[in-house]
# Entry
Amino acid sequence: MTRHDVVVIGAGNAGVSLAARLLRVGAKDVAVISPDRPHLFRPLLNYVAGGQATLSELTRSTASVVPAGCTWIRDRAVAVHPDEREVELGDGRRVGYGDLVLAPGMEEDLDAVPGLAAAMRAGWSLTAHVEDQAPALWEAIDGMTRGRVVFTIPPEPSPCGGTALKPLFLAADLWRDRGVLRDMDIHLVTPFSDVLDVPFVDGELSARLGELGVIVHRQARVASVDHGECTVTLDGPTGTVLDAVDLAVVVPPYRGRAWLEPLARPGTSGLVDVDPETLAHRSAPRVWSLGDAAAIETRSSGGALRRQVEILADNIARSRLGQSLRRYDGYTIIPVTLDRRRLLLAEFDRSGAQAPTTSLVDLTVPRRALWLFDRYVEPVLYFRALLRGRLIP
Ligand SMILES: Cc1cc2nc3c(=O)[nH]c(=O)nc-3n(C[C@H](O)[C@H](O)[C@H](O)COP(=O)(O)OP(=O)(O)OC[C@H]3O[C@@H](n4cnc5c(N)ncnc54)[C@H](O)[C@@H]3O)c2cc1C
# Structure
């Protein structure tokens, strides 16, 4: 059996950034457990669905993102044995740890919506949240000149679920420019009582949806879909059935990884039971979690990881020195394109209070510069700085 000082499970945004940060602040023996799968910069998926990016722009090999100086264990984790301080791998081997960081993200729960898996296979239901569907979603949107389309915002937890508005606004803007918007019947299903329940941007988003003629179903979720009958059934207060649907852009519900269930917090759809402020597991010593996998009591996002990575790397060192731990305030972001050239940014903390990164300019006002930053600058910062453990405010 091998043993490493710090073992990180998952080579996504959270795992790679954290491993790189640990090495940068002096850790000597860091291992990342990850199968050899493509690494994705997921925020660009919405732009793939909007015809503004390609899959190849957001995809790298895991080999190219695992930081130099870090051991890459090319397998998947299947269980954690906290009493023995060991992780079990798919091939039956075990890896011992000094500290363990759980960063395997969430998984789609297609079975939670009857009919969804079959509708996705048939290509009638598509989403940017599933990478191999994003190009097909763009093709469907690009080819439509009339019909009924249903978009959804997923219930929490979800990976930056609010950004599911991006494909809707990008598509509607395209249809308007082509002069076919009036022949489109666009519906948005949101689990929130307003658009996102982020009060300082909901007004702007509602107004834009109104201008585009989008019918918004609030406090509603997709209960089932039937691609044979072309129906989307909602389970909100009205129990609406949307029929004659031509395209269902349904983001699946998400849950934590099933194999981490023994370390999950009840009532969180399987997210890892950390103290949301220190990111330390509440009962398993020397176990930590961050990113989409962790029950951090705020909405997940890659932007949130900018803060979590710094704090967790510090907290691992501090806990070893017996020092008090730093606290994460739940900072997170939701970037939303309002059309094909403007974007607004909602930044807030765990209490829902606005938490802007700058006071020089109001980022909640839709701006072309913000769209350019989100579409073109963020991917560069991600691959060149964040994944290399550099801090960005
Ligand atoms: C369509 C979409 C758009 C988004 N847009 C934005 C945005 O605009 N802005 C923003 O800030 N955030 C956005 N996000 C959210 C952001 O991408 C996630 O919050 C971020 O990727 C979370 O990183 P993570 O490492 O926790 O999880 P992931 O990125 O899911 O990575 C988890 C990794 O763990 C690996 N893994 C899984 N199981 C195992 C196992 N058993 N053993 C070992 N490894 C395992 C996976 O292969 C994966 O590589 C978006 C997400 C999506 C899906």
Remarks:
- The chain has a mean pLDDT of 97.
